[in-house]
Amino acid sequence: MVLELQKPRPIWQIMFSTHHTDVGLLYLITSLAFMFMGGALALLLRVELFSPGVQIIADSMTYNRIFTVHGTTLIFLFILPSASAFGNYLVPIMVRFKDMAYPKLNAVAFWMIPPAGALIWLGFADFTWYAYPTYSVVSAPGPAADMWIFGLKILGVSSILGSINFVVTIMKCKHPDLPLSKMPLLAWAYLTSSLITLVAVPTFAAALLMLLTDRLGASGFFNPAMGGDPIAYQHLFWFTFHPEVYILVIPAIGFMYEIFPRFSRKPIFSHGSGVAAFTLLTIVGFASWAHHMYATGMSFTEKTVFMVGTLAAVPASAMHTFNFLATMWGGRIKFATPIMWAVGGIALFFSAGAGGVVNSAMPLDFITHDSYWVVGHFHLFVMGTILFGTVGFVYYFFPYVTGRMYNEAMGKIHFILSFVGTVLVFFTQHILGLFGMPRRIYDYPAIPEWVQMNIIISIGAFIIGIGMAIFLGNLVWSAAKGKPADMDDPFGLGGKYYFPYQAKNPSH
Amino acid sequence: MAQVELNDPIYRTTPERTTKMMVIMLGICIAGGGIFFGMWDYWISMPPPAGLLTGDVGGDDHGGSDKGSGAVTLTGVEINSALSFIESSDFRVLAFNALPGEEGANPTINANVGDKIIFDVVNDGKSFHAFGVTKDTEGFSNLIPGSEVASMNEPLKPGESGVSEFIPTEPGTYYYICTVPGHRMQGMVGEIVVTGAGAPAAAAPPTGVSHDFTFDFVESDDFRTLGFDKLPGEDGANPEIRVNSGDEITVTTVNAGKSFHAFGVVSNPDDFTSVVFDSEIAAATNPLKPGESGSVTFLAGAPGTYYYICTVPGHALQGMQGTFIVE
Asked: Do B10 and A501 touch (CB under 8 A)?
């Protein structure tokens, strides 16, 4: 899995390189490693929940620690870095520049991730990836909780630095012959998601500092015993993390915008509507944060505002979906592994979106609040859309990084297992939520419906786990002994590709 | 931009390089795993300073200061204290029972640890008052649970009255105050002097008599009302238990509801940590699940009025408490 960019070099030279493809490779390997680690934690949780009573996790605190690190790892150490990985490879090439605008800053942004990952994984905090007060202020035991706070702080700075780099590279280093409107949609995805990052993330950075000083007893922003307001933390948190959902999903949609036209052998149906939809998502992403907090006693007017703001994301998402469908329509589609993942991704994106729309209606929200419905909805988005888009792009990108082809049959089996597993797990979780099972519990009473559905969910999770084991084996085996790829047209599609495997490509 | 040679050699990954990469990554994972499992418990060994300051960290398994349990051996002595809120005509001076300077103003109550002080307070003034006992020498916070009558948010209106109890658990000076802000400074404060662990009423020697009781935990459909055997308001709910000191009691509880419950006999129904006689069945941290049952056998100790409650926080308030009288 080592990109032989210019010529074979010692691995430490790749590690300390500031070249965009080298940094991209480091991002890619790190994020995939964390994906497998975070996914393994999810399997532990599902073994524990397979049936009522204690299975393998001895106490509730250990369970809480495991799911806290599961969530933190997959959001901050897998999805964000994997988006940065492909951005590093492709954004400079797409805007026809020799490298990122600030290569050293780029390397610094990457190298903040391993220490942050070490802090999160060694500490294994127990207050969920929300870290809501008052538990996180007065009860969550340290130093794990403080390590988590510092880790997230470092990751926040890292993603702000990365975003500055993307924005400057795109806005200032773009080739003068390439107008912004003609820029590829994946580059647009990086531009818009970086802008969201720059606006949204500083809020959470501030909230983290307040949380830390609150924990030390030096301040009482969120500590009711000192006159603080825990709900204020929720507002600060969700002001960052609802837009964060779009930070995560926009690159994944950008990946699909690369995959669909190539494998349909047709140009994208409407470049302009893709740009418009990205821009719309950037704006409306900031109008919906409090739909996570209907149950905190907001007034009816506030709830209505955020309900409408949430629904405003629907047209933009639908524009993407229809753009994909119209691109495939009438194309000579080659159903190789990457486009299978992309198609599965939009199917699940639609399902997750439909659940989100009904859930943004206040009356249903009060029923589903803090139930497994929410778990199912959120995971259907991050797994069904974001991971599917990302994994599809990993397959698409594999020959460019390694010069070798992955095993196509294994890739398809991986897709089928993952798709079936995802539907089993996350659709069932929606229903389980309607049957009243609360989220974040490590044991549950033996209510027959709950037991049946939890068994289905756990079996689905194991199916995903088998698929991911196949994925890991495929990556390692194909990087070592895969058949050499035709580097001009690895998928045999014809047409124009970006050539990240060369520092300068012939299409420049 | 220089013309790029299209026949640049293509470099591909090799088994050697891939193996080296995997060895590096597995090495990091193994070394990290050693630290990870070696330090597993250390990282959660310290409660946050903010929690220590406010005393919110309970004595659970994962560190934290043990606040000690509210359990105390009852002496069986009951002290009745009738107090009334009195105001001067200009409302500047406030006091209990009589204005300061007059006889009987803010009477000092003397008690022993384990005595039960029963307050019967009545608002004889024209403004709002509320009652509570605190150990703080000033201010109106840190009220002892169970000692309050009304609160500053919902005070006693003129003419209203209320009853509360206070069982001192350690010697020292306590204060009974009006908890409406400012009223304590204006004079509505009296002392409760608690001297050492007086003479706890000795538990009678085992009498050899044994009683068996069975309680079901029941819940209303909306989970708002809870009770033993029946819901409060129905016949047979929370039956009163009378036993003699020294009797052997066997309690069997069945969780007939859908949520978690636990059982204990306590000296203070508002404090689920004040379990006496080693009478717990399960505990709030490891409760009885629906359908489970448990039983406990213990000797009834010193005479007094106790309560049997569900020790899951909040459940006693929702109705799961009954009287347990030891004679």
From this structure: yes
**Of residues B251, B256, B258, the one with CA closest to residue B309:** B251
On chain A, the residues whose CB falls within 8 A of the CB of B15 are 480-481
| Averaged pLDDT, B198-203 | 59
State yes or no: ipTM above 0.95: no
Instruction: Say whether B48 and A143 touch across the interface (CB within 8 A).
Output: no
A144 has a chain B CB within 8 A of its CB: yes
Tell me the shortest Cα–Cα distance from B319 to chain A, in angstroms.
23
Of residues B150 and A84, more confidence is placed in A84
Read off the pLDDT of each residue in A89-112 and give the average, rounded to a whole number: 92
Compute the average pLDDT of residues A449-459. Answer: 95
CATH (domain of A183): 1.20.210.10
Determine the topology of domain B78-195 in CATH: Immunoglobulin-like (2.60.40)
pLDDT, one tens digit per residue, over A360-396 is: 888 888 899 999 999 999 999 999 999 999 999 999 9
Kindly report the CATH number that applies to the domain delimited by B210-326: 2.60.40.420
Instruction: Report yes or no: A484 and A404 within 8 Å, Cβ to Cβ.
Output: yes
Of B10, B15, B40, nearest to A403 by CB-CB distance is B10
Is the pTM for the entire model greater than 0.80? no
Q: Which residues contact B140 (CB under 8 A, 6 or more apart)?
A: B132, B134, B152, B177, B178, B179, B180, B181, B183, B184
Write b or e for each residue in B229-243: b if 16 or more Cβ atoms lie within 10 A of its Cβ, otherwise e. bebbeeeebbeebeb
Chain B residue closest in CA terms to A9: B17
Q: Does B67 touch chain A if contact means CB atoms closer than 8 Å? A: no
